[in-house]
Amino acid sequence: MAKEIKIQAGTLAAGAALFIAAVIWSGRAMLENEVRFALFLAVYLVVAFHSFYSISSSLARKKLEKEHLLMVIATVGALAVGHYAEAVAAMLLFQIGCILEAVSVDRTKRTIEKFIDIRPAYATRKEEDGEVQVEPSQLELGDVIIIKPGERVPVDAVILNGNTSLDTKALTGEAMPDSVGPGSRIYSGSINMTGVVEAQVKKLYKDSTVSRIMELVEGAQQQKADSEGFVRKFTRIYTPVAVLAALLIMVCPPLFITGSGWETWIYRGMIVLIAACPTGLILSVPIAFLGGIASAARQGIVVKGGNYLEMLAKVDTFVFDKTGTLTEGTFTVTRVRPEGLTKEELLEITAHVESYSNHPIAQSLMSAYGGTYDPERVTDVEEMPGYGISASYNGSRVHIGNLRMMEEQGLAVEQVKTIGTVIYVAREDQYAGYIVIEDRIRDNARWTMKMLRERYNAVLVMLTGDSRAAGNAVAKELQLDYTYTELMPEDKLEQMEEFMQYQYEAERVACVGDGINDAPVLARADVGIAMGALGSDAAIEAADIVLLEDELPKVVDAVRIARETVRVVSQNINFALIMKFVVLLLAAAGYITMWESVFTDVGVMIISIINAAGVVKYSV
User: Quick one: which of 150, 149, 151, 161 has its CA closest to 123?
Assistant: First the structure.
């Protein structure tokens, strides 16, 4: 529990003890009115200390804590008209509510940190004279670190020596350990389970995966959803109106109704002031969104703010990238058709040139070649997004890419119509043949599309730069509503703009991609969802929601959490508003006392917290 909450709880406990003692003493002893006033005033100052502190702090920030101010005005008024014990009891109940609010928010934030804040305490750096334990922030790029069983990976790194299993559950939500060895990329926050490994630092501590994710989560707690904005705007109007109503109740009846006593109506007006405190209403929304963020964190889903949860709940159109999102992104060469070359020569040329690319297609070509590489054979490499790659190989200019690449080089090549991705090759302005590569649809893609379509009545769209044949084959298998193929990166963005232009005001568009090539459309969509983006800077920057695990069903999980969160928010707002107006009417009519009014508000607060706690524990 935070230090401030402990201090507040200690002060309140002392005030409660003093209040009980004051009530017992004043009940047994025949005290003068002045003595009773002084006694309860002293107790009141202890009980109300937090409210006075909050008001002074907010004034220093040029803001105003309306809830605390209204409570102080009302209870001081009650003291002034002789309701000493009731004034202290009302303030005591109000402070109990504040403690409950603070504890609930603190526990929710700690729940988030429990699943996300896994930053290691130290790192073991390998030096010439041995091993040295240092702060992770002291590591530099290129340093060699040693990670022993049971230790957390301090920064993002690449394994140099050793084999082990890594527990990545805290990052991805996946319980199954990952087997890693030399050349494997490992991420900060993972736990080394079995063997000792040496790894080379690839990212500074401040740029490592866990630090970046924690920044997102901490920032998420500051992002306000539309519902929170509604409540704040509502209370700006509601609070002054309620205060004016309380003043009219205090003044008008004694002036215009014969026999009405000032003391009775001032006291009743003070009850209305307390009933007007919007504490329960204001609390009902943010605690639910914090619960949604915490629930998502349990599933390995990082949401940048409550506003994105609220927006995701309204999404009716999902736009998917194809390669690496709907498909596995692991390609296999299925056909090689050379022109004037042997199959081995065509594969050798493409593998050497593509070895300079990190694209999954390049990796499959290199795997199909299977021979040794001579990097000195390849020079003047130029990647052309949306077309392919060009380079000089053994002194000859080679162009490898799609049909547009061949057209760019002025070559009249007949389009190959087949399922899969077709890679065309030209050498020295001569067509050299083509290679067909196929990518397998993800096992869980069909289930994900079915759930989105049947459960949420979603429109499913695919945008891909792949060929029409390959794109349509995937779209048909997954029963997508719309498919757009052979798109350049700028074409994808233009298509996204078109979707958003024709949507209704209440509709939203989500884009799901790998977070690297699709960064522009992820950023432009109402909700950008980066899938399997662990360690991807582009994903973390561009997306609004980051799925740390490379699993499509997490999209469905995110939607379910978002809708559950919004449902709880709506319940809390409606319940708080109904109770608030009922209590105001009863207070104005004189049917409830001051402490009963506060007790009702605290009850609304507790019920809202309990309802929101269900979102925190929400299991998908």
Answer: 151
Q: Is 401 helix (H, G, I), strand (E, B) or coil?
A: strand
Cα separation, 399 vs 392, whole angstroms: 9
Query: pLDDT (tens digit, 9 = 90+) per residue, 203-217?
Result: 888 777 666 666 655
What CATH architecture is 328-440? Answer: 3-Layer(aba) Sandwich (3.40)
Scan for tokens 């990670």, then name that residue: 147
Domain with CATH 3.40.1110.10 in the chain: 328-440
Query: Over the stretch 585-602, which tens digit does the pLDDT of each residue have?
Result: 887 787 887 778 777 777
Strand order in the sheet with 185-186: 130-134, 123-127, 144-147, 197-201, 157-161, 185-186
Greatest alpha-carbon span in the chain? 115
Q: Hey, what CATH class is 123-217 in? A: mainly beta
Q: What ranges make up the beta strands (E) of 75-216?
A: 123-127, 130-134, 144-147, 157-161, 164-167, 178-180, 185-186, 191-192, 197-201
Using DSSP's 3-state secondary structure scheme, residue 104 falls into: helix
Examine the pLDDT at 4 and tell me if it is beyond 70: yes
Residue 145's pLDDT band (boundaries 50, 70, 90)? very high
pLDDT digits (tens, 9 = 90+) for 288-317: 787 788 788 778 888 887 888 888 999 999
Count other C-beta atoms under 10 Å from residue 464's C-beta. 24
Q: Which residues belong to the active site?
A: 321
CA–CA distance, 277 with 260 (Å, rounded to integer): 26
Q: How confident is the model at residue 336 (pLDDT cuts 50, 70, 90)?
A: very high
Q: Could you give the strand order of the β-sheet that contains 164-167, starting from the edge strand earlier in sequence?
A: 178-180, 164-167, 191-192
In this structure, is the dihedral angle defined by the CA atoms of residues 322, 328, 331 and 335, taken in order, positive or negative? negative
Do residues 288 and 565 touch, judged by C-beta distance below 8 A?
A: yes
Helix or strand run (H / E) with residue 61: none
Q: In this structure, is the dihedral angle defined by the CA atoms of residues 576, 578, 584 and 590, taken in order, positive or negative?
A: negative
pTM above 0.90, yes or no: no
Mean of pLDDT over the chain: 80
| Helix/strand/coil for 402 | coil
Model confidence at 226: pLDDT above 70:
no
Nearest to 71 by CA among 89, 51, 57, 97: 51
Q: CATH 2.70.150.10 region(s) of the chain?
A: 123-217
Q: Which two tokens stand for residue 179?
A: 């087997």
What is the spatial distance between Cα 268 and Cα 592, in angstroms, rounded to a whole number? 9
User: Strands 164-167, 191-192: parallel, antiparallel or unpaired by DSSP?
Assistant: antiparallel
d(CA 268, CA 591) in angstroms, rounded, equals 10
